[in-house]
Amino acid sequence: MRILSVAEKEGQEFLARLINRFQEFPAHFEEGVREILSAVKEKGDEALISYTRKFDCPDFEKDDLLVPQEEIELAYQQIERDILSAINLAISNVRSFHEKQKEKSWIEARENGAVVGQLVRPVERAGLYVPGGTGGETPLISTVIMGAVPAKVAGVSELIMVSPPQKNGKLHPALLVAAKEAGVDRIYRIGSAWAIAALAYGTETIPKVDVICGPGNIYVTLAKKILAGEVGIDMIAGPSEILIIADEAANPAWLAADLLSQAEHDALATAVMLTTSKKLAEKTAKEIKKQLKKLPRKEIAVKALDNFGAILLVNDLLQAANIANSIAPEHLELCVEEPWSLLGKIKHAGAVFLGHFTPEAVGDYIAGANHVLPTMGCARYAQALGVQVFQKRLSVVGYSQEALTEEKEAVVRLAEKEGLFAHANAVRIRFEK
Fold first, then answer.
1. CA–CA dist 332, 419 (Å, integer)
2. What is the mean pLDDT of residues 319-323?
């Protein structure tokens, strides 16, 4: 793990690269995804089955698309009791957090008889994409919970989940149980870009949805990007990121573990620490080297650290906070003596984790805040997946004769200034005798 100073040229160059880390997608990937989308739009289920046989399950049939209720019920017998307990605790915490995000409808009546307001309504049907997770061997339970719970809290009538099948055509039992507990209504065994296309366009078997959420590989991400507008999406997500601000009060072993928790995600992940202490930086670097030896995903983590990993020395915590705001990280840990004092300086981050006993991992699984977060600096303007992704606001306007009489001239003047004379006439004609 390199140790750099923001006061020196090498540190400044690394920081500039980090701030400007937004990644464009290679053109050839987009061409391939567009072909998949076109095939699904034209051929429906036939295309889904063809792609699934080619990439996931050779013996896949149309009847295998929908997971039957009996398979979901059987899944409860195939998972450990402690996993079910953990699933339910996570769902409870996530539901409690997201209940507080719900907006209320409102109506305002003015003295002249005009009425304006806002109705908050959920989308009718949403789609949740859940990646396969090492060929189905490592079920991404938390992804199910983080996508399904806010959708159901928002009031979505029908929630459709899609996930790529294993070679035997099945989904991991833990995914099925998590989906059932979180309120998913139907589960289909399809993955990658063709799953996103199916949700966006609809096929003979899979219904068209209004919003798609959930992470995925480059093909899934590109499909969402291309289809955005035709269907609602949560966000365009990039590789995982963690930024830690630490002072002398921090534990280097804990810091190293937290940095590695994101580095193991992806070879393109970002794992950076800002600290005022050179001594802490050196101890943390040694701990990273030590802990890497025992890490099953060591090769991935090493590549990530080589690419976007560093410990940067800063003058003080205020400078660290300003740098953090420039980076706008997905995850920001404040491992300092007084995290609440530093929190007031933070403007841009997907999620902030306070103090020495709040590793980012608790946010991934159990705290309740959503772990689907903006990356690549998008936290400057974007936010975590939440209830608002599954709701829309309908404006309500009602004018009485008195209200329109009072304001008609303003409407006419503005409309005619814009050259929209039919607009002006739509008001004026109501007062002709």
1. 50
2. 98
Query: DSSP assignment of 136-196, as one string?
Result: GTS--HHHHHHHHHHHHHHT-SEEEEE----TTS---HHHHHHHHHHT--EEE---HHHHH
- Which residues, in sequence order, are CB contacts of 39 under 8 Å at separation 6+? 47, 50, 51, 194, 197
Query: Which tokens in the block code for residue 124?
Result: 């009718």
What is the distance between the alpha carbons of residues 299 and 307, in angstroms, rounded to a whole number? 12
Segment 377-433, tens digit of pLDDT:
999 999 999 999 999 999 999 999 999 999 999 999 999 999 999 999 999 999 998
Q: Residue 296: what pLDDT?
A: 93
Contact criterion met (CB below 8 Å) for 171 and 163: yes
Active-site amino acid positions: 330-331
Residue 158 contacts residue 123 (beta carbons within 8 Å): no
Q: Would you mind telling me the total number of residues written for the chain in this entry?
A: 433
Report the DSSP pairing between strands 186-188 and 211-213. unpaired
Q: In what helix (H) or strand (E) does residue 352 lie, and over which residues does it extend?
A: strand 351-354
Options 3.40.50.1980, 3.30.70.940, 3.30.70.120, 3.40.50.970; CATH for 3-23+238-367 is 3.40.50.1980
- Domain locations in the chain as residue ranges: 3-23+238-367, 27-233, 400-431
